[in-house]
Amino acid sequence: MRGERPVNKQDLAGLFDVTGKVAIVTGATGSFGSVAAKALAAAGAKVVLTGRNETRLDESTKGIRAGGGEATFLLGDPIVHDDVARVVKGTVDKYGGIDILVTAAGLNTNAPIQDQPDEQWQAVMDVNVRGTWLFCKEVGRVMIDQGRGGKVVLVGSVRGELGLGNYTAYCPSKGAVHLLVKSLGQEWGPYKINVNCIAPGVFRSEITRRVFEDEAFNKMVAPRFPLGLGEPEDMVGLLLYLSSKASDWMTGSILIIDGGFTAAY
């Protein structure tokens, strides 16, 4: 039994506390990944940034340290199992364990299905699904062995719930991530490992740059977002919730954060 938990000022103050927790952020060179790493470090976590661009990883890590946070980076390709295992081992060697995993690595190349090369489809599935699965596999092994639970935050998309023409790689890949969340929520619940998903709508990133610059999109589609299009920082509050004990009784959930776009569906 979880037992009675009195609600008082002291209890509430610690709900979102991640001080001293060890976090891995994949895709830490991207728009949300870099913001996620900065936010967790600012909240007191020890953050390991990982990705494929060493220059950007180094810049982000130095930026976190300059702001008083604790961070390091480990270069690695999320779709190469040996790289993933090395990043996870390196994190444990440096910090003694892992408490939080955030999978922010992502890829999208869209085209009509009859025109999209097979290798483009495979690349999207590899980064979005295989890379996520591999990090869950290796980090989950560590969290189970530690015996103290953990927080796993996968990054999905509203397009994992809603189809879209010319996105026959991206939408299925994010749908797979959403079902991975539900499956692992069931599988890891007995170990007190919470697995949840941030499913954003359109927010500013390298992937969506062309969307923000598209005049037709901004004229016809953007008005369908009651709160407007998003920024990576708009997900920080949800990230901290899912990374802290505030979400201890939540697992296997897909949390849509999209400026109200899907409220019309």
CATH topology: Rossmann fold
CATH architecture: 3-Layer(aba) Sandwich
CATH homolog superfamily: NAD(P)-binding Rossmann-like Domain
How many structural domains can be distinguished in the coordinates?
1
Query: How much helix is in the residues?
Result: 40-55%
Indicate the overall shape.
globular
Overall SS class? alpha/beta
Record field, number of beta strands: 7
Rounded mean pLDDT score? 94
Tell me about the largest β-sheet: 7 strands, parallel
β-strand percent reads 15-25%
Order of helices and strands: HEHEHEHEHEHEHHHE
Number of H- or I-type helical stretches? 9
Secondary-structure map:
Blueprint: H1 9-13, E1 22-26, H2 31-42, E2 46-51, H3 54-66, E3 70-75, H4 81-95, E4 100-103, H5 118-146, E5 150-155, H6 170-188, E6 193-200, H7 209-212, H8 215-220, H9 236-243, E7 253-257
Parallel strand pairs: 1-2, 1-4, 2-3, 4-5, 5-6, 6-7
Helix pairs in contact: 4-5, 5-6
